[in-house]
Design goal:
Structural class of chain A: mainly beta
Structural class of chain B: mainly beta
Shape of chain B: globular
Largest sheet of chain A: 7 strands, mixed
Distance between the termini of chain A: 33 Å
Helix content of chain A: under 10%
Oligomer: heterodimer
Strand content of chain B: over 45%
Helix content of chain B: under 10%
Radius of gyration of chain B: 14 Å
Number of strands of chain B: 12
Number of strands of chain A: 11
Distance between the termini of chain B: 38 Å
Shape of chain A: globular
Number of helices of chain B: 0
Chain lengths: 120, 117
């Protein structure tokens, strides 16, 4: 697609439920990032994929959070036993490559519109 | 220690004036990159400008320029001729890590810019 697509745009769930958030990156982008943004804060890194593998999942807050990217394209962020503190906007970004410090556009992260999660 | 520090929670600027948004960073890597993103109230993250650590010239993109002072580890964003549409949150971010491999991108907490007519 032309941009990074995230679904759903809004999700309201009850405490304890399971949720899945989907990210469809720009076609051909090998690097995919998940961030969480709470109100008034900057994006907080969660996990990074290079291709199908999670290269860095150090930002996942606990084992209730899990993400997959089985075919190296679409990624799903999964949250089990949701808590009220999980309420935030979950942002997905992709880039052509996750490596290098060149000035080319290959290193720029393109973000989706985000999925707003509200846990009641 | 914070990787990215943005010390100005909010800034005001008169329309058509220039404004500087501060950003300092902390890394021990020699190879890294610095970004600025804009986030309007709509929530989308818009890429503005990028500076690589080895770039000798300060990056410029239209009305945006990045004042890169490597020794001070600062990467301030300068917006010239401010417009009402510039009112938004601005985030500084850094990509660091080994060359040729994965590089993590970390964001600051942002600065809210309001342009006054």
């Amino acid at each position: 697609g032309a941009g990074v697509s995230q679904t759903p745009s809004n999700k309201v769930t009850e405490k304890g439920k399971y949720v899945e958030l989907r990210c469809d990156p720009i076609s051909g982008h090998t690097a995919l990032y998940w961030y969480r943004q709470s109100l008034g804060q900057g994006p907080e890194f969660l996990i990074y994929f290079q291709g199908t593998g999670a290269a860095d999942d150090s930002g996942l807050p606990n084992d209730r959070f899990f993400a997959v990217r089985p075919e190296g394209s679409v990624s799903t962020l999964k949250i089990q036993r949701t808590e009220r503190g999980d309420s935030a906007v979950y942002l997905c970004a992709s880039s052509l490559s996750g490596a290098g410090t060149g000035v080319s556009g290959a290193n720029v992260l393109t973000f989706g519109a985000g999925s707003r999660l509200t846990v009641l | 220690a914070q990787k990215i520090t943005q010390t100005q929670p909010g800034m005001f600027v008169q329309e058509k004036e220039a404004v500087t948004l501060d950003c300092t960073y902390d890394t021990s890597d020699q190879s890294y990159g610095l970004f600025w993103y804009k986030q309007p109230s709509s929530g989308e993250m818009i890429f503005l400008i990028y500076q690589g650590s080895y770039d000798e010239q300060n990056a410029t993109e239209g009305r945006y320029s990045l004042n890169f002072q490597k020794a001070r580890k600062s990467a301030n964003l300068v917006i010239s001729a401010s417009q009402l549409g510039d009112s938004a949150m601005y985030f500084c971010a850094m990509r660091e890590g080994g060359s040729g491999g994965y590089q993590k991108v970390t964001f600051g907490i942002g600065t809210k810019l309001q342009v006054i007519p």
